[in-house]
Design a protein that fits this description.
This protein has 542 residues and is α+β, with helices and mostly antiparallel strands. It has helices at residues 38-53, 66-79, 106-123, 129-137, 175-189, 193-212, 243-258, 261-271, 285-302, 305-319, 352-368, 376-392, 444-453; strands at residues 5-7, 20-22, 84-87, 90-93, 142-143, 148-149, 171-173, 220-222, 228-230, 322-323, 340-341, 350-351, 425-426, 454-456, 462-466, 470-476, 479-484, 491-498, 508-511, 517-518, 522-523, 528-533, 537-541. The chain starts with a strand and ends with a strand.
């Protein structure tokens, strides 16, 4: 590509004489091998995508102060009345700000509660009134006649307006059953008795549904009769094809919790339905990401490489639905779009909640593969996804966007542009964002970033931020060591954050060994930034 060529103008401006314009600029990778199986296709796709990624123009990232944002979001969640509905003696989170028409949903309560608990534990706050309030309301979602939790709060089911297939009593979107049960399992791991009771009282129903549909779930079904309301996402495309993976995730959690082998066998039965699927395994981004994690856990338990390959298929399907380009026109020129993942195959926008869950699931995937031999391309791509998403998802907050980039009227509820609650949808180009609504259940965005990227140092008044995932974090005397994930050909940012202005530290950052010190990129009273390579041993001394 010649150096004097410039991109074609995005406006109606005239082309200038004696200038070369780029109409199309492509990177093409060739292979002598033609893959034939879904696993071979996934491996070749991921390897070639990583090769291309190294050649792509990649936008620079910057450090964003997530600590302040998390606290603002927590405060707004607690005190903004548009986030809450009161029913049956308890307060419940709305799905969207000022959406008082729809009944509270069990998924919403748990989708906020779990990452918020992780954040509060990171802060060292054992008790919080919001945690108590949300847990106290959970038992009201249990339907004793069916012996399971239900999607909509039964006390307000009469508010459902039947405007959509799922907005009817006892109608379940298949993944909406698995997801809250997975979060109840996470709470049970924290010895929460309410969560464990609800989980164990509901799990037989979930297994009955799975076996009834032979581990191939429709989109919607009637909970009390198991009548199929909507079988396929589109004609000829089947139902929610990544659901066997989320069900396997749930069953593996039950197996770990109880030791009962029947749950492990259920996980394996479900995993069988992922075989022979390729990119079409992707139904919804977060569920495909959970599926990848479940398959890698099955591989670690069994040693059966089929499960490792199934995890590759899920990871490939995820990256096939990401945008590896930066939108530099319209409203989107004011915020990053690189490495956005679309929630559905045909979604016209990225979505806060799904992106946050994919981010969390892929961080966990890196933890699971830490000591395994896996594709280097997977480590490279996930590490870069993590780096870019934590600098990008902050723009879901309307406080970060220009006023004209936000719709005046959303489909659901209302938008408060001063509120630190994420918009559901972020659009590129000239399209305005927030058309779906301001998403209360997307409040976990900031909570997840803090817990995963900020690392406290015991007995010291500074923290370490890294925009890659890290492993092996360990303190010895006046030094900390860890390893960065990713690939040595790419770099990540380490930021040292003194918390007490009166305390002064003389930091030295080493890569590989004590003779290879790194000079800081930026130094001020609040932060000291360094650039280091991926897949390296790092030591910080003071």
């Amino acid at each position: 590509m010649a150096g004097n060529r410039i991109p074609l103008p995005a406006s109606n401006a005239s082309l200038k004489k004696n200038k070369s314009y780029i109409l199309n600029d492509s990177f093409v990778v060739f292979s002598k091998e033609v893959p034939t199986t879904p696993a071979d296709i996934a491996v070749q796709y991921l390897d070639k995508l990583a090769d291309v990624y190294l050649q792509l123009p990649r936008p620079e990232t910057t450090y964003y102060k997530w600590l302040d944002t998390a606290d603002k979001g927590l405060q707004d969640l607690v005190y903004h009345k548009g986030c809450w509905t009161f029913a049956g003696g308890h307060s419940y989170l709305n799905a969207y700000v000022a959406d008082y028409k729809s009944p509270p949903e069990v998924m919403v309560q748990l989708a906020v509660l779990v990452p918020m608990l992780e954040y509060l534990e990171w802060k060292g706050e054992v008790d919080h009134k919001l945690v108590d309030e949300l847990i106290a309301g959970l038992p009201a979602f249990y339907e004793p006649k069916m012996k399971t939790i239900v999607r909509w709060l039964p006390a307000l089911e009469s508010n459902l307006d039947h405007s959509e297939e799922q907005k009817k009593p006892r109608v379940m979107d298949s993944w909406y059953l698995h997801h809250p049960l997975m979060n109840l399992a996470r709470l049970s791991d924290r010895n929460n008795k309410t969560a464990k009771t609800l989980l164990m009282d509901s799990i037989d129903y979930a297994i009955k549904v799975a076996q009834h549909f032979k581990y191939e779930w429709p989109v919607f079904y009637q909970m009390d009769t198991l009548e199929v309301i909507k079988a396929e996402t589109a004609e000829g495309e089947g139902g929610e094809k990544d659901l066997p993976g989320t069900y396997a995730d749930l069953m593996l959690r039950l197996w770990k919790m109880t030791g009962d082998k029947k749950y492990f066998e259920e996980a394996r039965q479900a995993a069988e339905k992922l075989k022979n699927l390729s990119f079409e395994v992707f139904y919804q981004a977060n569920n495909t990401a959970f599926s990848a994690g479940a398959m890698i856990r099955l591989y670690k338990e069994t040693g059966d490489k089929t499960y490792l390959e199934l995890s590759y298929v899920c990871i490939a399907a995820l990256f096939d639905n990401m945008q590896l380009w930066e939108c530099n026109y319209g409203h989107a020129k004011n915020f990053p779009t690189f490495f956005g993942i679309f929630p559905l195959k045909d979604a016209p926008y990225t979505a806060a909640y799904e992106e946050q869950e994919v981010y969390s699931a892929l961080c966990d995937y890196l933890v699971q593969i830490q000591d395994l031999e896996v594709l280097p391309s997977i480590r490279l791509l996930i590490a870069e996804f993590v780096k870019h998403i934590i600098g990008r998802v902050v723009y879901y907050y309307p406080t970060m966007l220009k006023t004209d980039a936000i719709v005046e009227k959303s489909k659901t509820g209302e938008i408060d542009p001063s509120l630190w609650i994420a918009l559901e949808d972020l659009h590129d180009g000239w399209e305005q964002s927030g058309e779906v609504g301001q998403e209360v259940y997307g409040a976990g965005v900031a909570f997840g970033v803090i817990e995963k990227q900020y690392h406290k140092v015991k007995d010291e008044s500074f923290m370490i931020f890294c925009d890659y995932s890290i492993s092996g974090f360990r303190k010895r005397g006046k030094s900390v060591s860890f390893a960065t994930q990713g690939d040595q050909r790419l770099s990540c940012r380490i930021v040292l954050l003194p918390q007490e202005p009166k305390d002064t530290y003389n930091f030295t950052v080493y890569i590989g060994n004590d003779s290879n010190a790194v000079e800081p990129m930026k130094v001020d009273k609040q932060a000291i930034e360094f650039s280091v390579s991926g897949n390296e041993k790092i030591k910080i001394s003071w």
